């Protein structure tokens, strides 16, 4: 089976712009979670989707949003980018709730 | 409050030797799962091993084993016979079952460098 894929792998944006990141889960996996990784804050949970429904959201401002499509693919959007949004954004999929999460390679976002 | 604590400084390990990475956790949930992930410099998080709070035996996966001490709230990872490819950051994570979701709380990680 192919693993979790994320596009794009690298992204450079400027402050105030918005960005959309995409995640394709492992075939058959219906749960997708997103995490932000920064040197200062470490790995932080953003949100989780299962069957197109957001089940849980981390402590992030409303500028961070996401969605999941009927084929389980997920996107996350960050509007009005700030310098502090520079991070590695990791997507993880699992076959269901309470199952092991498998991560993608991540998208490295740099905000200038 | 921090749920996962990994406090060891970066470690240099001789090839073929064993290494133990410490992880302590904090939860009031009687049902939880503990995970270890490896993150090479490429950035991808690679799942290594899982231990459930009610599992009677310590988990093992190939060269990886988890030393689970429930009373001490400790879940140390042991890597036997280190290889050069084991050089990476290692993260301990916990999922609290009672929340009914997939949310993982991660520690800050342990840096391991394997030297020939």
Summarize the SSE layout with pairings.
The complex is a heterodimer of chains A (112) and B (116).
Chain A: E1 5-7, E2 10-13, E3 19-24, E4 31-38, E5 42-50, E6 53-57, E7 64-68, E8 74-78, E9 87-94, E10 102-103, E11 107-111
Parallel strand pairs in A: 2-11
Antiparallel strand pairs in A: 1-3, 3-8, 4-5, 4-9, 5-6, 7-8, 9-10, 9-11
Chain B: E1 4-5, E2 11-14, E3 19-21, E4 24-25, E5 32-39, E6 46-52, E7 60-61, E8 64-69, E9 74-79, E10 88-96, E11 105-106, E12 110-115
Parallel strand pairs in B: 2-12
Antiparallel strand pairs in B: 1-4, 3-9, 5-6, 5-10, 7-8, 8-9, 10-11, 10-12
Describe, in plain words, how this protein is organized in 3D.
The complex is a heterodimer of chains A (112) and B (116). Chain A has 112 residues and is mainly beta. Chain A contains no helices and eleven strands. Chain A has strands at 5-7, 10-13, 19-24, 31-38, 42-50, 53-57, 64-68, 74-78, 87-94, 102-103, 107-111. In chain A, the strands form two sheets. In chain A, strands 2, 4, 5, 6, 9, 10 and 11 form a seven-stranded mixed sheet that branches. In chain A, strands 1-3-8-7 form a four-stranded antiparallel sheet, with no helix packed on it. Chain A is globular and about 35 Å long. Chain A starts with a strand and ends with a strand. In chain A, 38% of the residues are buried. Chain B has 116 residues and is mainly β. Helix content of chain B is 0%, strand content 49%. In chain B, strands 2, 5, 6, 10, 11 and 12 form a six-stranded mixed sheet that branches. Chain B has a four-stranded antiparallel sheet with strand order 3-9-8-7, with no helix packed on it. Chain B has a two-stranded antiparallel sheet with strand order 1-4. In chain B, a hairpin with a 4-residue loop joins strand 8 and strand 9. The A-B interface holds A 31, 33, 35, 42-43, 45, 48, 50, 55-56, 58, 88, 90, 92, 94, 97-106, 108 and B 33, 35, 37, 42-47, 50, 91, 93, 95, 97, 99-109.
